[in-house]
Amino acid sequence: xxxxxxxxxxxxxxxxxxxxxxxxxxxxxxxxxxxxxxxxxxxxxxxxxxxxxxxxxxxxxxxxxxxxxxxxxxxxxxxxxxxxxxxxxxxxxxxxxxxxxxxxxxxxxxxxxxxxxxxxxxxxxxxxxxxxxxxxxxxxxxxxxxxxxxxxxxxxxxxxxxxxxxxxxxxxxxxxxxxxxxxxxxxxxxxxxxxxxxxxxxxxxxxxxxxxxxxxxxxxxxxxxxxxxxxxxxxxxxxxxxxx
Length: 244
Ligand code: SF4
What we know:
By secondary structure, this protein is of the alpha/beta class. It has helices at 4-12, 55-63, 97-102, 108-121, 146-163, 173-180, 186-189, 209-214, 219-237, and strands at residues 81-82, 88-92, 129-132, 167-171, 194-196, 201-206. Strands 1-3-2-4-6-5 form a 6-stranded mixed beta sheet, with helices on both faces. Strand 5 and strand 6 (201-206) form a beta hairpin. The longest helix is centred in the C-terminal third of the chain and has 19 residues, at 219-237. Iron/sulfur cluster is lined by residues 62, 65-68, 70-71, 77, 134-136, 148, 151-152. Iron/sulfur cluster binds next to helix 5.
């Protein structure tokens, strides 16, 4: 039975309560997934430098970073939040005004909707790891520039290596296209499991909650993406090959 809070989360996602949830396996708790983060590796950046090997050196390096112009206008860097050994990792675009103020990704209205999306899946925010492709806010919330993404990418790659997720969800067009190095429209990136980077991290794509707030009719598609991700995760846990 759905409890009242779960119902509220599903309703926030625009999901009718008759949606069958017994057709897919529930995600395993991160600690039950037996994931061991990859061995530490230094990640080279564009100028030949390297990011720190572990979480705290990495966080310190990011907080002092001046590799691109965005450092001039930020209030603070927005590193990432959540379980550093999570099985699920959600990657968005860049901090907005509220994230820049609070130093945490996905806060404000869009963040609240992401939290509802996670809870509809059966997660608390702290069960997953959440980060952005950029750690500093682009002025006026403009799209990230390619050179900014390139300069910042090593940090995210290192975060992915340290977390060692079983599945990654790219949240929104900007994140998806930059991670997958493609200009294919988001609609055509949905519904399949991509391989991210040399390690082939399984990655699925869904809409950004800020877009869903503007286009609530698309929430059902986002819910379908999350169910698809949950099915892919369950198949991964069975040792199946899901990357297409
Ligand atoms: S966006 Fe990334 S590369 Fe640019 S200053 Fe911020 S942390 Fe450094």
